[in-house]
Amino acid sequence: MTVRLTPDHICTMLARLRETGPLVQCLTNTVVTNFTANVLLALGAAPAMADVPTEAGQFARIASGVLINVGTPHAEQRVAMVEAASAAQEAGTPWVLDPVAVGVLPVRTALASELLSYAPTAIRGNASEVIALAGLGAGGRGVDAIDSPESALAAAGRLASVHGSVVAVSGAVDLITDGIDVIRIGNGHPYLTLVTGGGCALGAVTAAFLAVDGDRMAATAAATAVYTVAAEIAAAGACGPGSFAFAFLDALGSVDAEIIRSRVAIS
Amino acid sequence: MTVRLTPDHICTMLARLRETGPLVQCLTNTVVTNFTANVLLALGAAPAMADVPTEAGQFARIASGVLINVGTPHAEQRVAMVEAASAAQEAGTPWVLDPVAVGVLPVRTALASELLSYAPTAIRGNASEVIALAGLGAGGRGVDAIDSPESALAAAGRLASVHGSVVAVSGAVDLITDGIDVIRIGNGHPYLTLVTGGGCALGAVTAAFLAVDGDRMAATAAATAVYTVAAEIAAAGACGPGSFAFAFLDALGSVDAEIIRSRVAIS
Amino acid sequence: MTVRLTPDHICTMLARLRETGPLVQCLTNTVVTNFTANVLLALGAAPAMADVPTEAGQFARIASGVLINVGTPHAEQRVAMVEAASAAQEAGTPWVLDPVAVGVLPVRTALASELLSYAPTAIRGNASEVIALAGLGAGGRGVDAIDSPESALAAAGRLASVHGSVVAVSGAVDLITDGIDVIRIGNGHPYLTLVTGGGCALGAVTAAFLAVDGDRMAATAAATAVYTVAAEIAAAGACGPGSFAFAFLDALGSVDAEIIRSRVAIS
């Protein structure tokens, strides 16, 4: 098992992201659109929430990366999601699937299953979602994981192998796997679970990193690393989830190579 | 008239809420989804915004509590709301109706009327909304009340009696009634009216408290008490509505038995 | 070319806005509903996001001002937008069109074109959007302008003349024109571009100012002036886009005549 990610590589990707400002199309749930867009802006990417049928597919061809998050899958958005996934695959735009609450609820479970056929570049979820998406479990409790990332390793590996995707499992220690190698990132803070969209926005950040580096495994892991290191910085000065949320946006803007090198915990 | 709520009872409910993390399904308006989810997370509950037809009814059977807020009642969500209310009633899941701007606007007025037939456990609104929902007035000005809570007491009592609901009327002094007793909570701060969703999120918090205590009158009043005491704490250090909003989330996380006992104003 | 706006006139309009609390109906995109409502509340206006067909038209007749922003133009909202624009025109309610990403994407481009036929009181966009809406260019990159306000002056003038609208072009120096006169406002801060809805919420604020002063050119320019002066105040103490966002809401609440007189840069 080779660790394929160095702190220097993360810093190079982050610098490229800030220089190029990748255009990240997000088709995401109604709860987190605002936070997701602000996370991308703070980091240096350019969000665009084009999720209307006809526009969604067209935009996926010109976007730098696409996020599809099935958290509130209204009928019109479902059409747009399939359109965007299909166009992204055709155009070679990297795209990320976030299978929110899959397994528990039928509409999104069917939708996520259909979306898998368009070979997501990366899949990001919590352990219960990844296990359910791989057909190995019934899902968590709403959006909460009831399993640990390590317990989802086999499921993540299977998903990765079958669909040719990198799979990122969020938790106290995040797992990223392509079905062969595994990278673990030990950064982060529990406050991230007390801000709605703490996980969802990472999917968008992953799409932004995939847009700036063709090494999908490294890019997916780098997204998690930068995101969770910023969370640590923000948590240091926070008095609760409210002050954490705004400090996190500030930290995404200010996190730099020195901080990343001194903090990132890759294994 | 017996006051049926003690500070100790409030503290017991809050402790139980934080221990059990009730799963609160929210079918709410597009303006406040994010804030509502963050309020629930900060308090210790688990939000889930499942508002798609088919999923909505299924989720209402497993949720600990449900909020239905008719603030932006799009067609697909209206279907999901009726489904969720019906499933909640059948499954015995406590549910809260927030009749935003009822009386003023026809689509939501008809919808709220239909939802009433599923016997909401609690109804939370401002005075003008409660008066309009009871069929005794024309509603306020958009989402703003033009009446005081006391002027809505008769309407609240009638709604409570006819539908078997506890009715909470928000205002400077909040009223909670089951048609027999009345509890008044004198806490709060005007900043709550300068943050969008200040009232809407209380509906979700009410659903969370109803999930942890079968005394519906006490649970509804406790939700208002904890919420408005937290607002006082947050307002003390705020420089405006922006800093209040994040301090309020922090306060919902840190408010404890000592603060509640020293501040809560029940009559 | 006569400058038709004085600092005193801006202060008079702001005072009137705070006294009367104009009811601003917003039909806007899902990303910025929350921020837009909070911006209006902080400033002293009353937001109402009535965007369901049947209700939308009815509400536009009683609202003080209407914003129509085509950022995420779902089918049901498109119907509501046409209804609201038509009702606003008929009832004489001032209304603002924000043509987000027009030119790039087909559904909103057709919609904005249709909406223009209801003679918006004001049009607010970035340079690329204004050029595209005038039929003189292909639009920007998603929601980002690739042109400067000055380069959009001819397009803005043409739009203003053809549709009888005041056109506001946002950028480092904002341009406001009715096709004859031009007002430039040199205030603002780059942080506004790092908070999603930084431009969109200005459209809502413009509707609020149009509600309190019949001089459409002055009201549109005053909205920009107050908004961008508040941004300067907020930026002075901010550590990044997260802390800026909440400080901006505070500043909208506290900005006063003295601050405006000392800072506003009209030319």
| CA-based gyration radius of chain A | 16 Å
Q: How many helices of chain A in DSSP terms?
A: 11
Largest interface comes to: A-C, 33 and 34 residues
Oligomer kind? homotrimer
Class by helix and strand content of chain A?
alpha/beta
| Biggest sheet layout of chain A | 8 strands, mixed
The averaged pLDDT of chain A comes out at 95
Helical fraction of chain A equals: 40-55%
Assess the beta-strand content of chain A as a share of residues.
5-15%
The best one-word shape of chain A is globular
* Unreliable sequence segments of chain A: none
Q: How many strand segments of chain A?
A: 8
The secondary-structure element order of chain A is HEHEHEHEHEHHEEEHHHH
Terminal CA distance of chain A = 11 Å
Query: If strands are numbered along the chain, what order do they take across the biggest sheet of chain A?
Result: 2-1-3-4-5-6-7-8
Features:
homotrimer; 267 residues; alpha/beta; 8-stranded mixed beta sheet; 8 strands; globular
Task: Explain the overall architecture.
The structure is a homotrimer of 267-residue chains. With 267 residues, chain A is of the alpha/beta class. Helix content of chain A is 49%, strand content 13%. Chain A has an 8-stranded mixed beta sheet with strand order 2-1-3-4-5-6-7-8, with helices on both faces. In chain A, β6 (166-170) and β7 (174-177) form a beta hairpin. In chain A, α3 packs parallel to α4 (75-91) and α9 crosses α10 (241-254). The longest helix of chain A is centred in the last third of the chain and has 21 residues, at 216-236. The radius of gyration of chain A is 16 Å and the shape is globular. The A-C interface holds A 23, 25, 30, 33-34, 37-38, 41-42, 46-55, 58-59, 63, 76, 245-254 and C 29-32, 34-35, 71-75, 101, 104-108, 141-144, 193-197, 238-243, 245-246.
